[in-house]
Amino acid sequence: MKHWRIEALLIAIGLFFIGYQIKKGITEFKDKERIVSVKGLAEVEVPADKVIWPLMYKEIGNDLITLYNTINAKNQLIITFLKKNGITANEISQAPPEIVDMKAERYSSNPPLYRYNATSGITVTSKNVQKVRKLMTEQTELLKQGIAIATGDYRYNVVYEFTGLNKIKPQMIEEATKNARIAANKFAHDSESELGKIRNASQGQFSISNRDANTPFIKYIRVVTTVNYYLKN
How many CA atoms within 13 Å lie on the side-chain side of 129? Predict the structure, then answer.
């Protein structure tokens, strides 16, 4: 009889602990189902570290040989101007001229004054953005030599780029994650809860744009991360 009571007591204690563990598990499961999703933003302005500067000009004429000789002479004048002002040969590239035969244009009703219309020039690709920007203000020297650099055509716009994104990515992701946690803590406090561990997170796409239309050499970089946290009572 005594042994039976002891066994019954042990069974009761065991059932109590089993019930406690089940209740605890249900509570933890419910807590894990309580999730807050927040976004964290990081943004920074950086100077462009690469510039592509096309120096394009147009020539017209009736004789192809004369036209080619004129283009070659002007290209050499541009190259001399660039090298004299510190641009290296590795930063200079020259593309074949684009030549349009105006007499072959089917949509022209009036005979053209000149048969050939050529577009040619030199492109500078450099990491020294400041030097190139300074040189752009001095291109009137080319105008004095009879070279009018084409402007207003989107194909010949100066392009500024930022190539150092991988260097600043970790810092920006860290900042975005911190900002997300601040928002999550505020939500938890307002809902009278405690912030738990991170359930999962996703890194948003980095975007690079010009700061504004007047300063394309200053880049605006932003990233938004999404973080899901567990909430606890």
Answer: 17
AA identity, residue 134: K
> Quick one: fold of 32-47+164-232?
Translation Initiation Factor IF3 (3.30.110)
List alpha helices for the chain, DSSP H: 2-33, 64-84, 129-136, 140-144, 165-190
List pLDDT tens digits, range 56-89.
999 999 999 999 999 999 999 999 999 999 999 9
Can you read off the two tokens belonging to residue 34?
């309580």
Q: Give the CA diameter of the chain.
A: 125
Return the domain boundaries, the chain: 32-47+164-232, 50-161
In angstroms, what CA-CA distances link 55 with 15, 93, 135? 86, 11, 12
Give the DSSP H or E segment for 202.
Answer: strand 194-203
Q: Rounded to two decimals, what is the model's pTM? A: 0.77
- With contact defined as beta carbons under 8 Å apart, do 184 and 36 qualify? yes
Condensed to tens digits (0 to 9), the pLDDT of residues 13-69 reads 544 444 445 445 445 544 456 788 899 999 999 999 999 999 999 999 999 999 999
For residues 61 and 101, give the distance between their C-alpha atoms in angstroms, rounded to a whole number: 10
Q: For residue 152, give the DSSP letter.
A: S
**Class of the domain covering 50-161:** alpha beta
- Separation between Cα atoms, residue 137 and residue 139, nearest integer Å: 6
> 29-40 in b/e burial notation, b at 16+ Cβ within 10 A?
eebeeeebebeb
CB 123 within 8 A of CB 57: no
